[in-house]
Amino acid sequence: xxxxxxxxxxxxxxxxxxxxxxxxxxxxxxxxxxxxxxxxxxxxxxxxxxxxxxxxxxxxxxxxxxxxxxxxxxxxxxxxxxxxxxxxxxxxxxxxxxxxxxxxxxxxxxxxxxxxxxxxxxxxxxxxxxxxxxxxxxxxxxxxxxxxxxxxxxxxxxxxxxxxxxxxxxxxxxxxxxxxxxxxxxxxxxxxxxxxxxxxxxxxxxxxxxxxxxxxxxxxxxxxxxxxxxxxxxxxxxxxxxxxxxxxxxxxxxxxxxxxxxxxxxxxxxxxxxxxxxxxxxxxxxxxxxxxxxxxxxxxxxxxxxxxxxxxxxxxxxxxxxxxxxxxxxxxxxxxxxxxxxxxxxxxxxxxxxxxxxxxxxxxxxxxxxxxx
Length: 373
Known about the structure:
The chain is of the alpha+beta class. It is built from 15 helices and 13 strands. The two termini are 23 Å apart.
């Protein structure tokens, strides 16, 4: 349950960082291993669980087992990622770190095709690679390299907003800590939904101390309970659907997915992050042994026309399947049981469940992530 905020602080004090640091301070190491974690170092180090070396798992019968890639519990080691607490809970994780330098030098580069990104990836010259799409024809790669010194550093923890700087300046310098948490202050760009990008509210209502994912999570959970936004939409005659998804698409099909997204969903900005080929085989989240591109989009689709429940999310699910991709299960999901099993290691999961949770102390993965019982 250690948060990445605490974990990163402890690591940086020793001149290292976790190989992959998810974007929000409140994400926990155990959560990122049991789910799926990604960031701009993923082109080199894969997903969070690709950096996992060993873990202790609390099973439903009270036993604690130590799993490694080559011991008697190696099947649980490879099946734990994307199990979402349905096989057990991680009590201890031993994971890779990488050495850091004090600063990160960023270049924000416009691009028009994923072949340009592939050239960068093949060159393996960047410590960090991600991208932001502000619209169908407005894409920027952000390339980052560690630096021993910096002529200046920017501060996006208060009045300045990081994502806006991507399209406004060609290069930038951040401290390593500020780089790792560059998205947290504005929850990427979702802070607009709680008025935190309004200059007055940002400065005088939130202030430096309250800007960040911890505050926004509390506000959004409150709104979900009270339903203020839903009531306002009804008054305005709008129909809404939350479209909060991370999908991983093979690099060769990334352009087709972006075209589909532009024509059918069109919520901007959108985050784009490359993932290196998967070296280990993780049975419940098979990304594959080729480059993949993560597309992250988190907003509300509002229309005058009424659609069936989950209309836009179902469109996305179908397209991801057509393109040979996979989506993270923290999002709303609508798969049938057979389709879900085919995509998320059904037979392997059934064997793991029978072996490590025979008494059904934990729910089934489908029930927890699709039916949400």
